[in-house]
Amino acid sequence: MHAYELLRPMMRAFYASAMAASTGVPKPVDAASILVEGEDPDAILLLGNGPAHGWGVVTHQLSLTGHLGRAVTARTDRPCAVTFIGDETMNVSSALAWIGDHDVAAYDAVVVVLGINDAVRLTRVPVWRERFVELMDALVASTRPSARILVAGMQPVRSVTPYDSALGGIAQRHAERLDREAREVVDATERASFHPLGAPELEPDRPHGSSRVYRSWAREIADAAAPL
């Protein structure tokens, strides 16, 4: 048993407490698909939690979902529609269930933003790797041969306001373990690439996230995604 596993009950309680305290934080309440006009738009599936969930804004137009579509369009001069599947409760073990029978073959690219809650709850490294391999294999099998799979690394855990504490530091070290495993899996997966996600520049009056934060992250991801 790795030493970090002894801390798991405490860290799971820490995560549960943070989630209970965040019930009043704004989050998108509208449809999680950004539709666009234009002939044969590019289509991206955004899968995940954490930054993909949209903490701090009330519409997906201002979350990573909306900004990603606009950022890709700015680089390709083509319309880009983005569909988000996920929630803060999604984790590496439940991601495939969230996808369900959704037609993943309809997309030109899949962007995976996953792991913060697994890091905070200290998901065992072997479990993380096994489930992550299953997710990558399923995406390769269900996407079209030309589609790309982009995996974003985790943002620094302590850059998430509720986790900016000593316990968040424990989660950050675990996030680094999980990211190393994810990168190894991605490097061995056809059509997949791994891209680190930087720390957000939070606005003083928007500690949980804002349109500006999601626009910055979207530009990072779009630089890797375009052209589709």
From TrEMBL:
Gene3D superfamilies: SGNH hydrolase (3.40.50.1110)
Name of the molecule in the record: SGNH hydrolase-type esterase domain-containing protein
UniProt organism field: Clavibacter nebraskensis
Phylogenetic placement of the source organism: Bacteria, Bacillati, Actinomycetota, Actinomycetes, Micrococcales
